């Protein structure tokens, strides 16, 4: 278990993996990773965390797939509206109703 903050643990492991990947490709030295902390909507409570994650993934795919400026595109910190969260709930419910066979 990493005794540092979770951010530092992830940072160290990602940098290590990147260096290993470069070495496997025959490059002894490579450019260092530049970390840009992404911002995301901050949830006000603890009940909708899964929906916040799904909404953030949805936003990435639908709105930022061809992003040229991650700092600008991922700068939202305001909570999602109830309408935005309900949209994810509706997508998820619709998917299950149309694609999952229920045992009766």
UniProtKB/TrEMBL annotation:
Domain of life where this protein originates: Eukaryota
InterPro entries: Papain-like_cys_pep_sf
Name this polypeptide is given: Ubiquitin-like protease family profile domain-containing protein
């Amino acid at each position: 278990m990493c005794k540092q903050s979770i951010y530092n643990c992830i940072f160290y492991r990602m940098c290590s993996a990147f260096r290993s990947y470069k070495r496997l490709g025959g490059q002894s030295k490579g450019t260092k990773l530049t970390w840009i902390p992404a911002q995301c909507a901050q949830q006000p409570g603890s009940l909708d965390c899964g929906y916040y994650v799904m909404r953030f993934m949805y936003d990435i795919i639908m709105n930022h797939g061809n992003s040229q400026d991650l700092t600008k595109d991922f700068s939202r910190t305001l909570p999602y509206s109830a309408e935005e969260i309900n949209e994810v709930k509706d997508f998820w419910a619709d998917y299950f109703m149309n694609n999952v066979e229920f045992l009766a």
